[in-house]
Write a structure and sequence with these properties.
By secondary structure, the protein is mainly α. The chain has 3 helices and no strands. The longest helix has 14 residues.
C-alpha cells in the first residue's frame, strides 16, 4: 500500500504538479486515517 501511495505522489512530482502531490498526500492521510503530529500539520499548512 505505501509504495502505491508514493507512486501516486511521484507521478505528479515528475510532471511538476506540486499542488496535486500535496492534495494526493492529504487524501491518502485522510482515507487511511494516518496520524500526523501537530507539528507536521502546522508545517503542511
Amino acid at each position: 500500500m505505501i509504495s502505491d501511495l508514493l507512486e501516486d505522489a511521484l507521478y505528479y512530482v515528475d510532471r511538476n504538479e506540486v499542488p496535486l502531490v500535496f492534495e494526493t498526500i492529504c487524501d491518502h492521510i485522510d482515507k487511511y486515517n494516518i496520524p500526523i503530529t501537530e507539528d507536521e500539520y502546522g508545517e503542511a499548512m
